[in-house]
Amino acid sequence: MLVLTGRDDLTADAVVDELTRRRASVVRFDTADFPLSSRLAVTLGPNGWHGGLWGDRDIDLEAISAVWWRRPAEFSVPAEWPDEARAFALSEARVGVLGVLGSLPVRWINHPAKDSAANYKPVQLAVAARAGLDVPRTVITSDPGYAREFIGAAEVIYKGLSGGVLTADRRHRYLPTTVLSAAEVDDALAGTAHLFQERVPKAYEVRLTVIGEQMFPVAIHAGSEAARLDWRTDYASLTYEPVELPVDVEKGVRLLMDELGLFFGALDFAVTPDGRWVFFEVNPNGQWHWLAVKAGVPMVEAMADALQGKDG
Which domain holds residue 217? Predict the structure, then answer.
């Protein structure tokens, strides 16, 4: 088994520890090690590529039975190279290494191509609607007048389409959910595309973690006004408990996951005071370990089972 992730990843740590406890053969590799401290050497044969990656930990392609695309870091090339040389080298590294690994006919959790495609919110929202899930009224627009008409006299939720922004020091920062009125929309909206959704009343929210055929729904109860709008802004106020997944929601989620080609997903729902489950998004590589700990749910074991092929 191959786990592709960075060095500081508590979720991967827990799963690798579980696999090690089971005496399973697992190798952890960070793409940031290539090409400065590891090398690629493969040859194409009748059944695909053979050879591997060699460095601190050797990776024999033919020994890989499953790949967990967790959270690998960016490839590393010499900092002293000119910008154009660095850009070329990074592009070649991505296509070379990820192309070779991506060609392996093994279980992927998830394949990076599927992961990337599913990250487009317009795609996942359309697929969720076709799958029969309850999706908020949504518009995507760069037209200020169109946005004001959609909002009307109510308030709507504004969310980033791409999940966040890069700060000046190249760190990723997510955009918190924001409440917006028509009066706050100005002509600067024309500068790019924006996503607006109706504001959904919440009794509580649910993070549903899907690992293959297994589904782990955990209710997230907010203890502050900030958390009721966006629970990511106030983790200290949150409490958690496992909940039952309605049959119709489970059916829709399976259709969604199948169409997106995802083995794993972290899905966010709001449960309204009248009991409707409203779908917000699916993160193909979302966090889940803290929920396993807080709610006492065996997700680590389920992920280890999946990598070992013991979930069938």
Answer: 201-308
Selection from 249, 247, 243 nearest residue 219 by Cα: 243
pLDDT in tens, 104-156: 999 999 999 999 999 999 999 999 999 999 999 999 999 999 999 999 888 88
Q: Residues 65, 91: one domain?
A: yes
Mean pLDDT of the 244-268 span: 97
CATH number of the CATH domain containing 248: 3.30.470.20
Q: Please report, as a single letter, which amino acid is at residue 279.
A: F
